[in-house]
Amino acid sequence: xxxxxxxxxTYPFEKLxxxxxxxxxxxxxxxxxxxxxxxxxxxxQFIKDALTANLGGxxxxxxxxxxxxxxxxxxxxxxxxxxxxxxxxxxxxTQVLPVTGSREALFAIAQAVIAPGHSKPVVISPNxxxxxxxxxxxxxGARPFFLNTTPENGFRMDWAGVPTxxxxxxxxxxxxxxxxxxxxxxxxxxxxxxxxLSDRHDFVIAADECYSEIYFDxxxxxxxxxxxxxxxxRDDYKNLVMFSSLSKRSNVPGLRSGFVAGDAAILKKFWxxxxxxxxxxxxxxQAASAAAWRDEAHVADNRRLYVEKFRQVTPLIARHLHxxxxxxxxxxxxxxxATGLSDTEFARELRRQYNVTVLPGSYLAxxxxxxxxxRDFIRIALVAGVEECLEAARRxxxxxxxx
Length: 403
Ligand SMILES: Cc1ncc(COP(=O)(O)O)c(C=O)c1O
Description:
By secondary structure, the protein is of the alpha/beta class. The protein folds into two domains: 3-42 and 298-402, Aspartate Aminotransferase, domain 1 (Alpha-Beta Complex), CATH 3.90.1150; 60-295, Aspartate Aminotransferase, domain 2. The protein contains 13 helices and twelve strands. The chain has helices at residues 12-20, 45-53, 68-82, 102-113, 132-139, 164-169, 188-201, 225-231, 264-277, 283-294, 297-318, 343-354, 386-402, and strands at 32-33, 96-99, 122-127, 143-148, 170-176, 204-208, 240-245, 258-262, 331-335, 356-357, 359-360, 377-381. A seven-stranded mixed sheet has the order 2-8-7-6-5-3-4, with helices on both faces. The mean pLDDT is 97. Pyridoxal-5'-phosphate (PLP) binds next to helix 4.
């Protein structure tokens, strides 16, 4: 067997299952699940209709590059959303590829990018982070190098803190903006620094933007990687691949649909990798996805629900835990330091006494430089309905008041 499989870490939700294993939550309080980033708003009917209206496509093998209609709908969405020219979608030199959810693509990009002959390739990742980045690096034979994002550094990746020898061996950098779990959006100046470093050290930037459509001010959508590149005159998106997804935007985590866009030379190789991996998107899903990317009304409706939830929930949580509305995304990243409980004790007791599940921050981070930057935090995913999230906030308030 591949020995790198033994280097994979236990997934956060499995750790949570173990943490809860011996407890019985109160039977009279219905469970409220805020530990997993699975949107629970209803899937729009027109997406379901597009799926079922295209079941005839099951009779065909799909192409890895997706249908022309899907690639065009994605390119048009990028142009509208980011105010930039539509990326090229021509076969063979495309700047857009559909993927079956951003997760598989975030994993696959490392397998395609990392050069196996290289003695000790490095993949840089934020810490805390989405665990796929680490697994992707390890299974590609690379070693992850983590950059702590903490309240002290404004939840930014401190590029200046990366040693020269790490840059020398670096082949891939993951960034997550808006961030999971911090909700931090990377500003233009940080993109400028990252692009300059990528030019100097020749690494690929994998920009995970699956939370880009959950934001709170309709006039200020989060800056995207392609948009930043354009604003900085990088019209060819050199060394940049961005990852986007319908899962959170359109409440379809079960559809498994997203896209990658950016540097055509990288995408050409990535396309080749993907033809062997065999992850082409099913034709009915392509049709439903194209319909979803063409519509913005349901996304704006979705955002209104998140605005309402953060408006009602944040002040209740902030009475006890240090937290604030994020730049974007649907997570509250809340410090439990003032409660005297560790993140795991807090999560466990909250479920045992109030039947609300949240994720201990340390499950999302690694010990680096003598600290685990998630240790004092819990991640609260405001994915349930408005009333349910508010009820959860009241229970958290009661729990904290009792401490
Ligand atoms: C940061 C981040 N990236 C990517 C994903 C994967 O999303 P999907 O595969 O549904 O597009 C998730 C899912 O929760 C996530 O939190």
